[in-house]
């Protein structure tokens, strides 16, 4: 009887895992689409992220505080900590869109794959657990793929550097969010994170614009339309899906799955902007290495699940499971 309850729990957990993976992949596709939006929106990267955070923060407060009333009361200490994570997320987006604008969509997106390497190092340090050598090796191979592109396509140097900085910053907030989500609901974490990111970026923005002056501060009608898509679809919806997935998946799995973001984004860039005409064979070689890493990780996950099932059957060969 005890085994039946354990098996039922495992089946429920498996269903939750499948749902989490589905939500994660929808979020990854939306993240890939942000690369297209980064080029469609003509504002510079700092102003673009500032408007994104403004629209997203206002939308979340209206949606979660006024209508659904899903916001929890949390301490000022938690608000400050979540806001600090929000600033990290804001700077991740600034450097990400900077990579796209200084290079192109494909280069900016493929550099984001370095997030797996940084996660393999940062997650054990932050969560105080043993480093997984397999994860670290996969991350190092990904870095090797990016190096192939960097070494032979030097015209994209600035964009690649910004992309790698973006990947480092991008590995941090999923790790911290996972800890917050163990005791605070998704809506509260995301609302305060986006709000904190907006406030801290607003303080930094005047100094940023002194170094990178812009000719205009207000978006045109077309830019405003794409900013709404970026904020409502690719932010509010995508963040919620990713946060839900983090409840059942490790930060490394989430970040490594986000290596599909370049796949979706680059395919869109090929279709919309014909970027394949401007990329050398070294880009495709480096990209192939990164895709190989992702495929191998999927193989390892599937093999691990099969071994776990085989072990259960070996231990209880005659058990019939009835849900």
From TrEMBL:
Pfam family, one: EamA
Keyword match Transmembrane helix: yes
Location of the EamA domain: 24-150, 158-290
Domain of life: Bacteria
Keyword Membrane on entry: yes
Keywords, comma-separated and alphabetical: Membrane, Transmembrane, Transmembrane helix
Coiled coil: none
Residue stretches spanning the membrane: 21-43, 49-67, 79-96, 102-122, 134-152, 158-177, 189-209, 224-242, 249-270, 282-302
SUPFAM superfamilies cross-referenced by the UniProt entry: Multidrug resistance efflux transporter EmrE
Entry-linked PANTHER family: ACYL-MALONYL CONDENSING ENZYME-RELATED (PTHR22911), MOBA-LIKE NTP TRANSFERASE DOMAIN-CONTAINING PROTEIN (PTHR22911:SF79)
Protein name: DMT family transporter
Naturally occurring in which organism (per UniProt): Terrimonas ginsenosidimutans
